Amino acid sequence: MFLGIDLGTSAVKAVLVDETGTVQATASHALPISHPEPRWSEQDPEDWWQAAQSSIEQLLNAAKAQDISPRRIAAIGLSGQMHGATVLDKADRVLRPAILWNDGRSDAQCREMEAWPDFRETTGNLAMPGFTAPKLLWLREHEPAIFERIAKVLLPKDYLRLRLTGEYGTDVSDAAGTLWLNIKERRWSQSMLDACGLPQEAMPSLHEGSAVSGHLSASLAERWGMRRVPVAAGGGDNAAGAVGVGIVRHGQAMLSLGTSGVYFAVSDGYRARPEDAVHSFCHALPDTWHLMSVMLNAASCLDFTASLGGYPDVAAMLADAERVGLRHDGPIFLPYLSGERTPHNDVHACGAFTGLRVDSTRADLANATLEGVGLGLLDGIEAVDATGLQVDDITVIGGGSRSAYWMQMLADIIGRPLTLRVGGEVGAALGAARLAHLAAEPGANIDEVCRMPDIVAVREPDASRHAYLRERRQPKFRALYRQLAAMYRADDAQA
């Protein structure tokens, strides 16, 4: 058995799979999030650890109910939200709440980084507030007393690793999102660390995602009735999610519909297109890279509109949207509730409903939200296509994939088949479990362990709907962003 743990933004999820890859049990524990200032987003790492323990213990109890002994677990794998800055002192005490991936306070520091010599050539990326390095520059400027006490900087899942094993470690897929990694060479960049005022000793050790990074501590092993099993390095949530649905070879791609929206395409060599805010990262498997476009708000927009419209939950909103259908003259929604990454790299971007009429209903707002997220995803997919890495068939994972209505709308917008597979809703935790399997059995065949799960459904695009959405709706969507962008920036500057 292999245990996968995924530290998400809204919850910690755990999954137990057997050697055939079959899921035997799942568990989760919700997480709080704090927004103490505009554009700030933080969490307490202690909440992560408490939620992780709860999820693991729920999972082990569920396994015991099926007569599965914890001693059958052969390895643990980790996945987690990327980019979060978790800063520790010499005694491993957390110095302040972790600054998360969707935090937008460090745009001034990003402008500073873009002027560094060889910055884009080394990192393969634009400097964005979501990444880790500008957060540390912000701390150096605004919280210098805390910055001076920093002994280690860990990414979120790697804080769980420290609590599980006592080891400081990370994997190259997660480290790629810090802006301290030389992406092409898969190593820490001394020049980028020097520019941030951090010694290499402040960084965790680097591993490939399928490598062993430590072993479960004796005290936790005894408490949970487990052996001191190896803990795999794991992967950032998107890389692990890709492993979970078998997106591991050149030319394969997935669309992840979680809090954020991510298009992820695998390459067997290093590629980059920072001018369009495409992320160029290492994959969680050796000698593999990936390109990624990121929307900061995807399924979270559905939560926003469901609350705004007074729906009891997102499911009720989706049912109402499907009953009414997408009107050709309905409102347009810009999904930039907390800024945007690909392709705009605009921390000041805001969401908006436009084109409202006297007969507009909350169902129209719901459909506009579904469409607006889809059009934003299309922008990102086309940015990745521009690198020359174009994929015809896309696997979809994440909670947003549960809606057949939305999946068909997205297929019509993107103009390519969307494939749903078994286990897509637990993709990152499943991927973490698969990386644990590879760590426990170094000679295992990657294609067998990381095979694509069975197909649940394929949503084929409607050619006429795709043409309409590309020719009529997408130009309006893009024009509205351009028209409002200057106003957003001016308002934010005055504030």
TrEMBL record:
Enzyme Commission number: 2.7.1.17
Domain Carbohydrate kinase FGGY C-terminal: start-end pairs: 253-439
Catalysed conversion reaction: D-xylulose + ATP = D-xylulose 5-phosphate + ADP + H(+)
Site location (Important for activity): D6
Residues of the active site: D237 (proton acceptor)
CDD domains to which the protein is assigned, alphabetical: ASKHA_NBD_FGGY_EcXK-like
InterPro entries in UniProt: ATPase_NBD (IPR043129), Carb_kinase_FGGY (IPR000577), Carb_kinase_FGGY_CS (IPR018483), FGGY_C (IPR018485), FGGY_Carb_Kinase (IPR050406), FGGY_N (IPR018484), Xylulokinase (IPR006000)
Any one Gene Ontology molecular-function term assigned to this protein's record: D-xylulokinase activity
Domain Carbohydrate kinase FGGY N-terminal per the UniProt entry, residue ranges: 1-244
Swiss-Prot/TrEMBL keywords: ATP-binding, Carbohydrate metabolism, Kinase, Nucleotide-binding, Transferase, Xylose metabolism
Protein residues bound to substrate: M82, H83
Family: Belongs to the FGGY kinase family.
UniProt-listed HAMAP family: XylB
Job of this protein: Catalyzes the phosphorylation of D-xylulose to D-xylulose 5-phosphate.
Protein name: Xylulose kinase
Source organism per UniProt: Dyella caseinilytica
Gene: xylB
